[in-house]
Write a structure and sequence with these properties.
Number of strands: 5
Largest sheet: 5 strands, mixed
CATH topology of one domain: Conserved hypothetical protein from pyrococcus furiosus pfu- 392566-001, ParB domain
Radius of gyration: 23 Å
CATH class of one domain: Alpha Beta
Shape: flat
CATH superfamily of one domain: Conserved hypothetical protein from pyrococcus furiosus pfu- 392566-001, ParB domain
Order of helices and strands: EEHEEHEHHHHHHHHHHHHH
Length: about 300
């Protein structure tokens, strides 16, 4: 079935970590081929709406591409059973301890399940359930939100930010704020935490206030940032190419445009041209002048 965005209840979106690289590849695929797999929904308390169980990346991508509807498949299950079934069906993907903790916390808070019942349903020990719940309790919520948004690596948050928060909650928040979205790896967070542990109070304050400066003094942070920027830029340019091809296909294969809509299309296209002109001015001239003008990086290979 096809659902409109306003019919979707996205209450469980926060149970998954966002992975920007994966989402960019999916966005490119959606732009080129459309939605190939339906999202999974269950009935919500409002009969006109449906709760999304799986497919949040697809929903975000389709919304970004300005689609009107989302293809969905309906499971005739309770929300709690659907969440657990979806988790077991996704065993091929890596699931972080934080994501496990978020799901367990939701099961306790929303469905009032006991630790013993959760242990039985997850096929784990009560101790395992308790440790995962303690993890999301000890890690400051703002750091968890940065992990959800893909700004901080989940493993680094679990391995290094949790013990840092136990020792100094305020400094853990400051460090997370300083490195969020900067492409800092788990290994680099480990180096920051090790240096923090071995420093005086004054040294610790300097490390959490200027973590990128500390990492630069240790080696290759600038190079890693440059490499990450190039990869991200290439993905963005690939998406632009695919969206342009898709728009061209609609104009070529579709019916003539209604006269009443032509002014709006003209104005929108004018905005596109302005943004593309701004983008072309940002790219160094020597790059644009090399070769025959045919892009060597083929987005169709994604």
């Amino acid at each position: 079935m096809d659902l409109e965005f306003q019919q979707l209840d996205l209450r469980y979106e926060g149970l998954r970590v966002r992975r920007p690289g994966v989402e960019k590849r999916l966005l490119a695929s959606l732009a080129q081929s459309g939605q190939l797999m339906p999202i999974v929904v269950v009935a919500a308390s409002d009969p006109a709406r449906f709760t999304v169980v799986d497919g949040y990346k697809r929903v975000r991508g389709l919304r970004q591409l300005r689609h009107d509807t989302v293809a969905a498949i309906h499971w005739d299950l309770s929300e709690s059973d659907a969440l657990l079934l979806d988790r077991f069906m996704r065993t091929r993907t890596s699931e972080t301890a934080l994501e496990q903790g978020w799901l367990l916390r939701e099961m306790v808070g929303r469905f009032a399940l006991s630790l013993e019942e959760l242990a039985r349903r997850f096929d784990r020990s009560v101790s395992w359930v308790s440790r995962r719940l303690a993890l999301v309790k000890e890690l400051p919520e703002e750091i968890q939100e940065r992990v959800r948004n893909g700004e901080i690596v989940a493993y680094a948050a679990m391995k290094y930010f949790v013990p840092l928060a136990r020792a100094n909650r305020m400094q853990s928040r400051l460090l997370a704020q300083r490195i969020a979205g900067k492409g800092v790896s788990s290994r680099q967070v480990e180096a920051l935490y090790a240096a923090w542990r071995g420093s005086t109070s004054e040294g610790r304050a300097r490390i959490v206030s200027e973590p990128l400066l500390f990492l630069r003094s240790q080696g290759d942070l600038d190079l890693k940032h440059s490499e990450a920027l190039i990869v991200s830029l290439l993905r963005d340019l690939d998406i632009l190419v695919l969206v342009a091809r898709r728009a061209e296909g609609k104009l070529q294969e579709g019916p003539p445009l209604p006269a009443c809509d032509q002014d709006e299309i003209r104005q929108t296209f004018q905005r596109v041209r302005v943004e593309m002109d701004r983008l072309s001015r940002r790219i160094p001239k020597e790059i644009l002048s090399v070769g025959s003008g045919v892009a060597a990086h083929d987005p169709a290979a994604l």
